[in-house]
Design a protein that fits this description.
- By secondary structure, the chain is mainly beta.
- It has a six-stranded antiparallel beta sheet with strand order 3-4-5-6-8-7, with helices on one face. A four-stranded antiparallel beta sheet has the order 16-43-42-41, with no helix packed on it. It has a four-stranded antiparallel beta sheet with strand order 17-18-19-20, with no helix packed on it.
- Helices cover 12% and strands 30% of the residues.
- It folds into three domains: 94 residues, Phosphorylase Kinase, domain 1; 169 residues, Transferase(Phosphotransferase) domain 1 (Transferase(Phosphotransferase), domain 1, Orthogonal Bundle); 330 residues, Methylamine Dehydrogenase, Chain H (7 Propeller), CATH 2.130.10.
Amino acid sequence: MNLSTRYCAHCGAANPTDLPLCLACDQPLSEADFLATDLPARPLIMGRYRLLARLGTGGFGAVYRAEDTTLGRRMVAIKEMTRSGLKPTERAEATEAFQREAYLLAGLNHPNLPAIYDHFQEGGRWYLVMEFIEGQTLEAFLAQVPARRLPVNVALKIGLQLTNVLGYLHTQQPPIIFRDLKPPNVMLTATTHAYLIDFGIARLFKPGQAKDTLIIGTPGYLAPEGYGKAQTTPRSDIYSLGATLHHVLSGTDPTDRPFSFAPLQLPVPAPLQALIASMVQMDERDRPATMAEVQERLQQIEQGSAFAPPTTVLTMPGPAAPRPATEAAAEPPRFVSVAGTPGLPTLPASQGRIVVSRRSVAIGLGAVLAGGVFWALVHNSSAPQPPASVAPTSAPTFAETSVATPTPPPTPPPTPIASGTTVYHIYRGNNQPVLALAWSPLDGASIASASSDPTTQIWNATSLRVLVAHSGAATRLAWSPNGQYLATSGSPDEEILIWQAANGGNLLSYPIQAQDNLPALAWSSNSRLLAASDDPGVIHIWDALNGNQLINFGGSTNGVLALAWHPDGVRILSGSGNPNNTVYLWDTQAGAMLASYAGHLGGVSTLAWSPDGQFFASGSLDNTVRVWSINNGTPITVYSGHASLVSSVVWSPDGKRIASASSDTTVHLWDAATGGNVFIYRGHTAPVTSVDWSPKNNRVASGSIDTTVQIWEPL
């Protein structure tokens, strides 16, 4: 291989080998930027994909970093298979493996699998175009840590994600057996989000088949039955996962001595040692029966361990969002622990993820946003204690953080706060004002709350997960309708982050121009598309799981303070600030305005659709909530019961009532059809910033500047 030229991984420019910085973009060059001179002479593949850098090579080809010139110069990974120089039998085998990977991935959709965008043949080569994952392999990560061993909490975080995705594969019909789980086939992003890569030898399970046709896999990680003695099954992947976990916790590569796994030493907890030992049993009947069983036991171990504080979050600097190749990017990612996780390399403070953006942190949440939205109160608000009349329930004792499989919380003894009210829990896990919250649509038991402390927390009565990747408080939060993802924004870092709700892994981030306004957020009903607004009042639509920006349009020159996606997944509402004070209905596919609804005397700060999509509610800085028919530009109901601006509105699951929160410290429940007041909740001692209704029952959660989230129900 000729290494006479060095190509920048950030912009693709060619550089002499003796330069430390790229001539074109001034970014650091590394050994990974070397490319062989056999880079295809025609770098524009299929007339749209421009090859930028070689990421790796394999037995039949290579993987490149490339940009899609037809879709906003989106970064992609292109896997290339060349058939030149192969014998006929090798060519057939390579082609079959390559096509198998393309067809398998095309039919899968999971947050721990890379998305596939395209596959084709050109110039005697096969190409597979996939999501580009900013990060490094687990193998490369291990090479950087002391003794090549991961801290137990990090190994558990990775292991839980792998059980999740392998369990997903095993429950396909027919089941998919990965067959080659090992550190080189696991990619890690900046927040330790794990992806399975390289499906070249994955296979569909065939009931009744005596053994696999071919012996394919990596010795040391490959289960004994994979050597031609029997058919590989889901328990074969359990063996490979056990071998991988043993490797990352012991620092011993199993390829050196296959089938030999020395007992793990402290600080690995005894239950984890026993689980891994059972996973690597020679007889598959002695292993755990399913990946779901392994996942459950890992969760129990994580929740019951005391080797790491609950707030420890592993992260590494570097952009997670796709960006043009010519844009300067961060240095090649390296892992750091923001909580000082023992055993991990750390970076100087100047290299960490927390940075001062163009918007001064001193301004932060104290800025007057779009004509005086209620968040302006946060900066100058103290954190008063609940009134003496409130007898809060005791907070749950949280163990090691996890909500991978949320369980409904036990109901504590009800605590009366006022006549006709039952308070089920007062949560004090946030030690600064609570700025946003949402119930999980999946189970109706878990809640996500964002605070200026600054954390976003996912919690229920038995578990807690703390997310802190933003450089400042996340003031907007949206939970996808399928319950799998969270989106957070409004931080000084001017980023929208998408999280995997089950394990706290960060999927993607999107830069947003939001110095003066907090970007509104809304998910489509299919949980695939994410809408957000920016400073100029433009609405952006992204494919939330692969980073592709689909369209941007309209909005309002007075800023977009609120968004609400119609249940049909096509139309979306936007609420504008002063002096426009109007709600607009848009077609998200064409970017065309369909209708407008005027009548508020202040900026429209919050929007919510009725469950049937026939009506919507708009809350405003004018202290009112209005209910509109989608087909009528005149409000059918105007609710004027609040003494101050309305910060949040939500419909009850049956569509009969609306809850509205206000900076007057109250939450009002009222009849959606008539506007008649039903109930006023007075448990908070400071402005109420957010309210949500449980999708499973009659309970309401409200968050406040008084630092609490209160779960209550009117009798």
